[in-house]
């Protein structure tokens, strides 16, 4: 059952409802659930259970008109408010302006990338080499919409388990995998959404009758995960390369996308400041690896994040700042020799030459 979007009073009621939350409660954004069920007349219906539109197609033109009216009205009255579509099909231009033929949403949830990423991280590392490109495929279409990467309530209810419990291995490996997942996601193009409890590494899935398990913040490994989330958010705000070009293809470049046997990935993020590039290195195997990492510029480089650092609950396989060698590698003009932590993600950034200790 869906609303009759062809009736003026129904559309008026729905638009007014959206404006009510913005005017009276000053919310920052709205998420429109199950947009696919609105767009397609045959959604979850068998043959004979739906009537084609006037052109003989399955598109619900009245629902399309309503969504455009909703978004145009919200954007006109509240320019800074985000309206996000939870839309799971390949319907084009969901997050493009209505005057360009789009639906007018600010963002679209990237359901495909989220499912591929979780399926990869849920696998035992010994099998990940056979599913390597589940993590690279999302970049094929990453710029077709203004995407949000959602680790939402849908992934931690109805017997699916918490994010921490989805991770393979013993307790140490579960936490390492989850830290790596968050650092991967925060470096990946697209805006970020993490449902409450994920920042603490809850063991139990979400229960709407109880509070978040805040007491876990006193447990060292959970506290380390919480500290990591704080660091990720601070760096995400601080480093333009991580957020300025989320929807621009020149803001991302693979350095190494094919090291499937070693479960290693390398890419670079770029912002408006061409000098300040961030290199992300992910070792999603439980083995420590000595690895030559190609970097896009010479000079000194340092870790601004290492998910294996002791402060986050890791084994502290970290690297001191070092100067790039003039040795081209993986298509990059310079390179570094690094130790890659087990089930860990590193972010590298250029720095000024460190002063020598007296």
How would you explain this protein's 3D organization?
- The protein has about 350 residues and is an alpha/beta fold.
- Helices cover about 25% and strands about 20% of the residues.
- Among the domains are: about 10-110, Rossmann fold; about 250-350, Immunoglobulin-like.
- A six-stranded antiparallel beta sheet has the order 6-7-8-13-10-11.
Q: What keywords describe this structure?
A:
358 residues, Rossmann fold, Immunoglobulin-like, six-stranded antiparallel sheet, 27% helix
| Strand line-up across the major sheet | 6-7-8-13-10-11
- State the helical fraction: 25-40%
What share of the residues does DSSP label as strand, in percent? 15-25%
The CATH superfamily title of the domain at 249-351? Golgi alpha-mannosidase II
How many distinct helices? 8
Report the span from N to C terminus: 75 Å
What is the H-and-E element order?
HEHHEEHHEHHEHEEEEEEEE
Number of strands: 13
Shape: globular
What is the third-level CATH name, the topology of the domain at 249-351?
Immunoglobulin-like
**What's the CATH architecture name of the domain at 249-351?**
Sandwich
What CATH first level of the domain at 249-351 would be assigned? Mainly Beta
Q: Give average pLDDT, whole number.
A: 95
Radius of gyration: 23 Å
Q: Look at the helices and sheets and give the structural class.
A: alpha/beta
Outline the biggest β-sheet. Answer: 6 strands, antiparallel
List segments where confidence is low: pLDDT < 50 over at least 5 consecutive residues: none
């Amino acid at each position: 059952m869906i609303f009759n979007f062809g009736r003026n009073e129904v559309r008026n009621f729905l638009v007014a409802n959206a404006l009510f939350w913005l005017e009276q409660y000053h919310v920052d954004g709205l998420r429109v659930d199950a947009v696919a069920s609105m767009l397609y007349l045959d959604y979850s219906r068998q043959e004979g259970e739906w009537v084609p539109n006037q052109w003989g197609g399955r598109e619900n033109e009245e629902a399309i008109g309503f969504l455009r009216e909703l978004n145009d009205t919200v954007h006109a009255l509240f320019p800074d408010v985000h309206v996000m579509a939870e839309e799971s099909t390949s319907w084009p231009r969901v997050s493009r302006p209505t005057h360009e033929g789009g639906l007018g949403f600010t963002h679209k949830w990237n359901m495909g990338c989220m499912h591929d990423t979780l399926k990869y991280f849920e696998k035992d590392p010994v099998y990940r080499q056979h599913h390597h490109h589940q993590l690279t495929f999302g970049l094929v279409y990453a710029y077709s919409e203004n995407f949000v990467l959602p680790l939402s309530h849908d992934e931690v209810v109805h017997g699916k388990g918490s994010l921490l419990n989805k991770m393979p291995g013993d307790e140490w490996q579960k936490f390492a995998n989850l830290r790596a997942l968050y650092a991967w996601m925060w470096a990946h193009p697209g805006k970020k959404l993490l449902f409450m409890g994920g920042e603490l590494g809850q063991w139990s899935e979400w229960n709407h009758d109880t509070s978040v398990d805040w007491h876990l913040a006193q447990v060292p490994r959970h506290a380390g995960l919480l500290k990591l989330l704080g660091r990720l958010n601070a760096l995400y705000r601080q480093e333009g390369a991580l957020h300025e070009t989320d929807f621009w293809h020149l803001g991302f470049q693979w350095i190494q996308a094919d090291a499937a046997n070693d479960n290693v990935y390398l890419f670079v993020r770029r912002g408006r400041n061409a000098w300040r590039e961030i290199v992300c290195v992910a070792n999603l195997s439980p083995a420590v690896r000595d690895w030559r990492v190609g970097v896009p510029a010479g000079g000194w480089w340092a870790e601004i994040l290492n998910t294996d650092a002791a402060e986050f609950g890791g084994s502290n396989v970290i690297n001191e700042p070092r100067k790039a060698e003039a040795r081209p590698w993986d298509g990059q003009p310079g390179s570094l020799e690094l130790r890659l932590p087990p089930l860990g993600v590193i972010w590298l950034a250029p720095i000024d030459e460190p002063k020598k200790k007296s």
